[in-house]
Amino acid sequence: MGEDVNDLIKEYLVSFNSYLHDSTSVKRTQNILDLMFYKREIFSTFTMAVFVIRKEGEGLQEPPEDNGIVIDGTEVLHELTSVASACAMLLGLIYALNLAYPKPLRFTFEVLQKILMQLDQHKMSPKCNSLCNKIVFS
Q: PANTHER family, alphabetically (predicted)?
């Protein structure tokens, strides 16, 4: 749809002095506080996004430290199971809270809503309708 996926899904690498799952409670508490401060700082700039936080040095096959959703700079959901479930939850929140799609992602959300979720299909933009026709007739 010509939109940048980085506007929807934000991935961050976090480096800790010791790992979050360290056995000592003092180190674990400090790492959790560091992560909370880090999240608050980076999320303040987001209008609407899915975030993924990974430990620095871990590969993509390792589960992320956290997946979640940010709306207007506030973390509204976290510890979600996957990016796909986070995108579905974000779409549900947009629908339930009657929020407008962010301009840089309006076509992406329209495709998710009207083509994948099959909601309100009779009101598609020409761009979304064109993609739908290409999918159906290919």
A: SI:CH211-193K19.2-RELATED (PTHR31025:SF27), SI:CH211-196P9.1-RELATED (PTHR31025)
- pLDDT at 43 > cutoff 60: yes
Instruction: Give yes or no for a contact between 14 and 35, defined as CB atoms under 8 angstroms apart.
Output: yes
Give pairs for 18-25: CB < 8 Å, separation 24+: 19/55, 20/55, 20/65
Q: What is the mean pLDDT of residues 79-101?
A: 91
Contact present, 30 and 55 (Cβ < 8 Å):
no
Q: Count how many residues are written for the chain.
A: 138
**Spatial separation of the C-alpha atoms in residues 102 and 32, rounded to whole Å:** 31
Largest CA distance in the chain: 59
- pLDDT tens, position by position, 112-131: 888 888 888 888 899 888 88
**CA angle at 54 for the pair 111 and 110, rounded to the nearest 5°:** 10
How many CB atoms are located within 10 Å of the residue 82 CB? 12
